[in-house]
Prior knowledge:
alpha/beta, 11-stranded mixed β-sheet, globular, TIM Barrel, binds iron/sulfur cluster, single chain
Amino acid sequence: MISFFLTTRCNLNCIYCYNIEERKKLQERSLPLDIAKAGIDYFFSNNSSRHIRFYGPGEPTQEFDLMRQITEYAKLVGDGVSVEIQTNGVFGSAVKEWILNNVNILWMSFDGTPDIQNYNRPIGGKYPSAPVIESNVQWLNKNKGDRGLMVGARVTMTDRNICRQKEMVDYFYKLGIRYIWTNPLFPAVGTIPVCDDKQKLSKYSFDMEKYLDNYLEAYHYAKEKGLFYGSFLICNFDGEANINCRACLPVPHLTPDGYVSACDMVVLGESAFHMDCFIYGKWDNNSRQFVFYQDKIAGLRNRTSDKMLHCIHCEARLHCGGYCLGEVVNETGSLVGQKPTTCKAIRYLLKELGTFSVPYEYLHP
Ligand code: SF4
Ligand code: SF4
């Protein structure tokens, strides 16, 4: 896929936003349309995939016109284009209608029952977001007909919802949601690795054991009800690979400041600090072309679970691929670093769930 990081503008103030500090310090920026179009030309001439995706660093639907124009251009120059959005779900009727007719996969960042959603993800820091999201999800599910639109939930797990996963399954089920991916909370990206940031480390907490117990219970419960209830930790259990994700290929994520990033966690290129290893190219306005950094590409491609010392003998190496490099680099400062608690959790889940014989229908957002 090619991803467009459309804008730094956002209408929510989520309490754990992974890049809120980074965005606050910046002047609002959006991806220039000419760079987005050049990105499509480049991607379509070098890949067979025609999947385009809209993502942060802020809320993509806040740049509705831009999103519409990019999609129109992609459909003009490519056959069989599919469209994916990751959104906070807080948008009005014009966006809603456009999504109904143009989008194939819509992931809503949605943290569960209204009390949790409203606490974690308030509109403008003040107003509840659950009523707007509920109404948008229900409207899309009611009207989608045979358009092939999937509306799923992408849930950030925090101390607030860890023990309420079964209840969350029931709540989403009632809204018509059938695909849910959960993500354990990770520390936000700043200017230094988390391991060197004592303040951030002291504020971060996540009870992995509690998450796993409740996750497994909710996973089986959801399965009985006909829902898919995934975890970021099992995102490669549906096949074999010695790499974790698209960041290892890499594929382009165009940033609002004109860079090419490999990862969702690195949304601006100019000052990527300790995350700079993910910035593998830049738009050159003079030549009107993308310039790629071959050393960075080689570094990302070289990160495989059959080469990293901590992975070589791990029973999960082909069903994990060395875990999310974005989180690993952010937390350890190294592309080949390790998150030991997460590794233990992945191996435990592999033992409990085994592998899946068919690929997941919808990949982790
Ligand atoms: S490295 Fe992690 S955050 Fe980045 S794209 Fe891959 S899975 Fe997503
Ligand atoms: S679980 Fe840990 S040690 Fe095993 S492959 Fe994944 S990152 Fe490597």
